[in-house]
Every structure is written in structure tokens, then in C-alpha cells.
Amino acid sequence: MKLGLGTAALGRPQYINIRTKNIQKTDLAAFRKHSFSVLEEAYALGVRYFDTAPGYGLAEKLVLDWLQTKNDPTIEIATKWGYTYTANFDKNAIIHEVKEHSLAKLNEQWEFSKQLLPAAKVYQIHSATIATGVLENQAVLQQLSSLKKEHHLTIGLTTTGENQIEVLKRALDVHIEGTQVFDLFQVTYNCLEQSLQEIAQELIQQEKTIVIKEAMANGRIFKNKNYQHYSLLYKTLTNLAQEYEVGIDAISLKYCAQKVPKSTILSGASTIRQLQENLKAGTFMLSSQDLVLLDAFKIPAHHYWSERKKLTWN
Asked: Looking at the DSSP assignment, which residues form a beta bridge with residue 16?
């Protein structure tokens, strides 16, 4: 099982989830020190894949600073372009990030991201959608293809929303000079949102890399009185966690790893304790019966994403 560390929660104090209370982290220096310590612990525990983005507040700069303390060619950094963080650590901000899939934004953000070379192995479009037209923007695609050749990068994209399978299918058809541009796909997948299964086998057959994000459904897998319709899921996950003597988080991460073999599963841990608990996913195997049990909690993609849209930044 390959577990990577996503840095969204390390680069900014707020993210989309089910919590209704804000944790006050107004001391920027303390926040940065804490996040640095999580990166350090991840490395100590064997994590070598780190996913970041300029849209994650301090994250990309933090990863760069941390990387400069290491001399290890096995470290893989995946970063992205297309989102600009705008909240400026203001917990009352109305707009936290702005999407722009233009050639100008790609070039602007690459100017900073290229400092992560040679550890930067993956460069992704951040939340590619049909609506932005980025998969048809020849200038952008040509530039990505050029970066791929010049720096030996794996070019990928991340998906969000109920049409993420359509985006993946479109991306597979994108070619520059007869060569597919995209070789890595970072996709939302968990026991509630299982639409990836529609195309997973095709991606595997084409030898594409799959990276799974939001394995914990932005916190919806954890018992919450506001989501009574998931009561049976909560009970099932609790029983499995007790059986394997791990947390619900480890069960969810392991489910994704076993359902999509050879994928990289991202932990979104924001503390050392969470990270340690997440890594317990590598200590056991779910039975085929367990997998069938969890498969049964699949919900329609439009329900999943409609519910996600109602979550707040906390």
C-alpha cells in the first residue's frame, strides 16, 4: 500500500469538512512550525509521496523549505496549477480560492513550482473540469507537453464533482503530437463516492497512475448527528475498526487501497497523531466480505457532490 501525504490542511488552517467549530490558529509562525513537524514525521514514518499546490495557502512554500533539509532522491513531490489561495488566513473570508485555467496562470505558477525540481515528479491541473475548457486549450496543452519533455514530469490532473468520470474520459483522448498528455489522475474515491470504478480498469490497462483523494469523504465517514442517514455506515465502520484494532480512518484508507490496486492513497492528516493513525492502514487486510459490506454504501454521485457543496470551510 502506497500512502502519500496531501498538504491542503498543512498549508491553510481551514478546509471543507463537516466540523461546525473553527479551531483558532491565528499564529502563523506556530502554524507553520506545526505543519513542518507533520512533514518531518511523515518522512520519518516512510512516506515519500507529497502532494501540494499553490492553492493550499503556505503549503507549496512549506514543502519547498522542508525539501531543502533533505537529500533523498526517493522523495516525490506532486504539485498543481490553476488555483490561487485568496483567504489570507482570514477565518471570515467568503472566497478562499479562485480557479483560473489559463496559460498565463500556468506560466505564473510554474515559475514558483519549478523550484521543487528535481523532486517534483508530477505536475497536475488542479480540478480540471469541462466548463473551464482546459482540456481543449491547445496553448495550455502544448505547454504542459513541453514541460513534460523538458523536465521528465508526469503530467496529470485532479477531478472534483459529479462529472469527474467524463473529465477522465476526455483527458484520455488528449494528445499532442500523437502522444497522450495525461498519465496520472487524482480522483475522489471512498465508500460513498465509488464512480471511479466505472473507469478504473481502463486506466489500469492503459498503465495510468491513480491517486485517490478524499478517502474520508471530507469527514462524512465519522459519526455525526447531522448525518443520521449514514447511521448504518457509522455502525459498520465502527465494528470493522474494533475488529482490526485501528481507527475508522485506517479502515477507509485500506478500503480504497484494496478496491483500486496499485493506487496511491492520500492522507489529509493535519496532525502527527492523525498521520500515525492513518498509517495503520498498512498493517492489515480487509476480507472480501468486508469489502462487499462497504461497497453497499455507494450513493449516486449527484447526491454525494450536492451534499459536499453544503459543507463549510472550517
From this structure: 313
What tens digit of pLDDT does each residue of 67-119 get?
Answer: 999 999 999 999 999 999 865 666 666 666 789 999 999 999 999 999 999 99
Q: How far is CA 55 from the centre of its chain?
A: 13
The CB-side HSE value for 32 (13 A sphere, CA atoms) comes to 13
Cell for 297? Answer: 454504501
Longest dimension (CA), the chain: 54
- CATH superfamily name and code, 2-313: NADP-dependent oxidoreductase domain (3.20.20.100)
User: d(Cα 160, Cα 183) in Å, to the nearest integer?
Assistant: 18
Peptide bond into 118 cis (omega under 30): yes
Residues facing 185 on adjacent strands? 157, 210
pTM value is 0.94
pLDDT tens figures, 246-266:
999 999 999 999 999 999 999
Residue showing cell 455507494: 298
pLDDT tens for 168-214 read 999 999 999 999 999 999 999 999 999 999 999 999 999 999 999 99
**What CA–CA distance (Å, rounded) separates 122 from 156?**
7
| Conformation bin of residue 127: beta by default, left when phi > 0, alpha when psi is -120 to 50 | left
What are the boundaries of each domain within the chain? 2-313
The DSSP result for 17-67, as a single string, is ES--SPPP---HHHHHHHHHHHHHHHHHTT--EEE--TTSTTHHHHHHHHH
Closest CA to 121 of 156, 160, 77: 77
How far is C-alpha 51 from the chain's CA centre? 7
For the chain, helix, strand, coil in percent to 5 are 45, 15, 40
